Amino acid sequence: MKKILVANRGEIALRVMRTAREMGIKTVAVYSEADRNAPHVRYADEAVLLGPPASSQSYLKAEKIIEVSKALGVDGIHPGYGFLSENAAFARMVKEAGITLIGPSPESMEMMGSKLAAKAAAKKYNIPLVPGTDEAITDTDEARKIASSIGFPVLIKASAGGGGKGMRVVEKDADFAEQLQLAVSEALSAFGDGSVFIERYVGAPRHIEIQIMADTHGNICYLFERDCSIQRRHQKVIEEAPSAILSEEMRKAMGECAVMVARSCNYVGAGTVEFLVDENLNFYFLEMNTRLQVEHPVTELITGIDLVREQIQVARGEKLSFSQEDLRINGHAIEIRVYAEDPSNQFLPDIGKLEVYRLPAGNGVRVDGGFEEGMDIPIYYDPMLSKLIVHAGNRSEAIDKMLRAIGDYQVTGVKTTLDFCSFALNHEAFRKGTFDTNFVKHYFNPALLEKPLSADEIEIAAIMAVLARQEEKPVVKSTGLEQQASKRAWKRRMHS
Fold it and tell me: Which of 226, 291, 337, 366 is the catalytic position?
C-alpha cells in the first residue's frame, strides 16, 4: 500500500495522514470548497476538490471519490468517521473498483448497521441484551402490549443510524402511539429506514464501549474500555479510559463479549462494541460501530497502540502486531471534544471566525485538531474544533492535567464547550466517578458557567456607575483611559 486517499476532513483526516506519512505512504486529500484552505488539504501529498460545501455535494459523493482514487492510482481508502465510514454501499464500490477499504467488509457493516440484526447476532452468543423486541414494530397495538409487559418507561429506537435520531423515551401508555409515530417519522427522514424497536429504558446508565481490533488471520483482541457517559443530545463530550467503575473481572467479561460480537459478523479492522451499564453494574450490548471512533486517542494513550497503523497493516493483510496477553493498561487518559457550541444556549452550534486560537501543550497533552487561527467555522459540518486529550499516571492526575490544559486553551470569536468541560471535570460526581449519561440533566445549569467579577472589574464598574450619574460627565464622554479600562473589564468578563 503506497498511496492512501482519506475520504474525510478536519482532524481525523490529519490524524490518518500523519500515521501514513510515518509509514512512508503517500496521501491524497479530498475537500469541499468550504475547506479549500484547511490544514488537511495542505498536509497531504495531493489534494482534489470534490465540489460545493454541502456534504451531499462533496464528502458524500462516493462515485467522485472512487473516480479520483482510480485516476491517482490510490491503493487504499481510509474513510475516517462520519460521512461514508459506515456506508456498506460505498465499501462495496471500493472493493469492486479494486481498491482496499481500510475498514471492515460491506457485509459486516450491513449486519452491525442494523441494530436489530446486531441484536440477533449477539443473541446467538448469549451476550446480555436489554429486554425488548427482537424485530421491527409493525403493529401499534401489539407493540403497546409488549411495552406494557416490559414496563414503562420504555425506549423506542431506530434500527438504522444513531446520534439520538429516531429515539423516544415513553413514560406512560397514553403517550405510546404518538411517540411511536414520531420515532418512525424521524428515523425515516434521517436514515431512509423507518424500522424501530422497543427496549426497556435504563434510566441511569453508564455508556461504556470496548475497542476491538481484528485481522484477516482470525485474531481478535479487545483494547479495554472507554467511559463515554458525559453527553449532550445523546452525543459524547467527555471520554476516558479506563472506566472508574469497572473491576478487572467485569472488564474481562465485557471484553470477551465484544470479541464474540466481532466474531458474529466476521469483523476485520478497528471497531467498537458499545454497552449500557445499569446502576447495579449489569451490562447490556447496545450496538457496534464499524469504524474508528472519535475517542480512539484515549485507548492509544493507555495501550501505546497506534490504531490507525494497525488498521493499515490489517488492510494490507498483516497480522495484529500484538496479542491479548501483550496488552496492559498504562495510566489514565481523558479526552474532551472542543465544539464550537454555546453551552448556555442548549449547546447550539456557534459560527464565526477564530480570532484567537492558541492550543495547549506540555507533557502528556495531545491535541487532534483541524483548525487554525483566523479560520472561519463552516456551518455545513459537525462543529468540533478539536479533541483535547491528556495522559497521566492515574485518574486524579489526568483530571488535574486536563483542567490545566483547558485553562491554556485560548479561543475567541466563537463560543465553545471548554468551560462546560471544566465545570464537569471539577464536579464532585465526576471526581468520584458516580455520574451517568444524565449528568447534564441532573447537574448542569448554564448560570453555573458565569464567573464572578474580579476586584478590579468591580472597581471599574463602580467608577463607571458614578460617571453615569454625573450629568456633566456622561459615560459617552468618558476619557480614553476610562473607556479602555471598561473595555478590558468587559473582555475579561466575556472571555474568562
Answer: 291
- 291 is annotated as an active-site residue: yes
Cα atoms in the 13 Å half-sphere on the side-chain side of 361: 2
Domain assignment present for residue 30? The answer is: yes
Structural element, H or E, at residue 223:
strand 220-232
Range of the domain at 459: 455-495
Q: What is the pairing mode between strands 168-170 and 154-158?
A: antiparallel
| Pairing state between β 220-232 and 235-241 | antiparallel
Per-residue pLDDT of 220-258, as tens digits, reads: 999 999 999 999 988 899 999 999 999 999 999 999 999
pLDDT digits (tens, 9 = 90+) for 429-486: 999 999 999 999 999 999 988 876 566 656 676 677 667 666 544 444 344 444 444 4
Which CATH number fits the domain that encloses residue 168? 3.30.1490.20
Regarding pTM above 0.85, the answer is: yes
**CA-to-CA distance for 165 and 133, rounded, in angstroms?**
19
Is there a single domain that holds both residue 183 and residue 235?
A: no
The secondary structure element, H or E, covering residue 317 is none
Together in a domain, 196 and 211 = no
Report the run of H or E that residue 62 belongs to, with start and end. helix 62-71
Is 232 found in the same domain as 190?
no
Where are the strands (E) in 331-471, listed by range?
A: 332-339, 341-342, 348-349, 356-358, 365-369, 384-392, 410-412
Q: How many structural domains are present in the chain?
A: 4
Furthest CA-CA distance within the chain: 86
| 464, 482 contact by CB (below 8 A) | yes
Whether residue 180 is found in the same domain as residue 256? no
Q: Do 322 and 389 lie in a common domain?
A: yes
Look at residue 440 and tell me if it is in a domain. Answer: yes
Q: Of all helices (H) and strands (E), which one includes residue 397?
A: helix 395-408
CA dist., res. 127 & res. 120, Å (int): 10
| CA-wise closest residue to 91 among 81, 112, 80, 105 | 105
User: Which grid coordinates are listed for 30?
Assistant: 479530498
Query: Is residue 121 a part of any domain in this protein?
Result: no
E-state strands within 265-375: 269-277, 283-289, 332-339, 341-342, 348-349, 356-358, 365-369
Same domain? 423 vs 296: yes
Asked if residue 164 belongs to a domain, the reply is yes
